[in-house]
């Protein structure tokens, strides 16, 4: 392919990708540049870049005076990372059991675990709240981590078992002949091979957890356990006509998840190149 | 070899943690809700078993069924737009991205995925601001290309609001099909591609004849994920149009209908029993769709081991 890749095709590929990149980033760009401008400049010329003449940090000052955003970030980070860890570990283990072994009730178990993809866990909110009240977990981050782990597992198992089915059987059998235990086969042979899928699942699991508004509002609305999405929503509700503050709050809510994603995105690339199923 | 098969404890060990967490926090609460759809209050406010009466009201009693069928139709349109716009764009972007030795591929991939990581709070508000006739970004942009007369308050008109929101949702989620297809394309072994090149199959015909059949299982997964995601959707409509899914319920989908019924809004009190019936109907719709896929399509897909 390399020698024959025509210049024209490369240019066309870049043109398409660049166009779509602009569409994807434009709204974010508009919000971030306007968050640094004075109120008058926001309305007079929304597309102008922040210049010394219209530069104003009043939005950020309002936000930082109002809420404890640093604590909210910390809460969101703890909840997201912990849930992600449990979803990936438990999910990969269950997916391996389902895709590797033939046992009675395998299909049934697969369907049972896939049920959760179909029904939003929110439909069970009232019962979940009752459980949390009974166990005294209301207003703790543990409650959120448990719910998000349950929420993320079905999809993780579904995707991972699809990928694990394409891991070569010979490799695993070779491991068995060498006397590896089933646990060693899973952790040292299969897991490294499905790393791209794991990274993909990680990104998909992380997003709804970080962005969820529902469960923080119901299970952990206390000041010490507020997540950043809930914090931003409450803030926007209070300051809806203060555009400076709203735009600054939106920008602040975008940045951390962006950083988290960029970290995982590296992992994703490394995983895909190093672990590509051979 | 022992003549009797030993108990394979490792299977239980692998399954136990996931099954335990999942059962106690998802299945039990969900079935609590489904059971509740078979009950209602009698005149004295006592909880009584009513069988399928709630569902009969939901599908047949004009007071409920108008809203229900409206929400179902809107939801179907929402899904159709995703299938026709989001998934083809996602597959096309992934195909272009996976061109070998494409420069800046990592940058494009990261950038195009960014809308997907944003919360509904941000996405809903950002697009409301951009499409707002007051702030004037959308009219201003159309003015640049001389099309200002085309501008309308899309989110405020009954005919266009739902399509606009569906397209906003497409904008937000196109990264998901792109990523999954991209990962699938990268996992096609070099030998297969090299063999195709030996036979003189390159470029687009290589994509259609070699790669597309190999990634069909992934496309299947994406379609079913889109279906499930769309019929569970709620947040974007809620953030952009509120629980009343205005204007005049034109953007009402099953999720917002359920929310209004279950938790109440403004002056109407929440009705957990009818809410549970709506939840049960959503469950049924999704179950039928997923079964059609699992038994009708997935079993016919060929899976290749490399």
What does this structure look like?
The complex is a heterodimer of chains A (278) and B (306). Chain A folds into 2 domains: 2-56, no CATH class; 62-275, MetI-like fold (Orthogonal Bundle), CATH 1.10.3720. Chain A is an all-alpha fold. Chain A has helices at 7-35, 39-44, 58-66, 69-100, 106-118, 125-134, 141-164, 169-177, 182-193, 195-211, 214-219, 228-238, 243-275. Chain B has 306 residues and is mainly alpha-helical. Chain B has 13 helices and 2 strands, in the order H-E-E-H-H-H-H-H-H-H-H-H-H-H-H. Chain B has helices spanning 9-36, 53-60, 62-97, 105-117, 120-131, 137-144, 158-173, 175-186, 190-198, 203-231, 235-241, 254-263, 272-297; strands at 39-41, 47-49. Chain B starts with 8 loop residues before the first helix and ends in a 9-residue tail after the last helix. Chains A and B meet through helix 1, helix 4, helix 5, helix 6 and helix 7 of A and helix 1, helix 3, helix 4, helix 5 and helix 8 of B.
Kindly, what is the distance between the CA atoms of the first and last residues of chain A, rounded to a whole number of angstroms? 20 Å
Stretches of chain B where pLDDT is under 50 for at least 5 consecutive residues are: none
CATH T-level fold name of chain B: MetI-like fold
Distance between the termini of chain B: 31 Å
Order of SSEs of chain B, N→C?
HEEHHHHHHHHHHHH
The dominant shape of chain A is: flat
Number of helices of chain B: 13
Strand content of chain B: under 5%
Which chain pair shows the most residues in contact? A-B, 100 and 90 residues
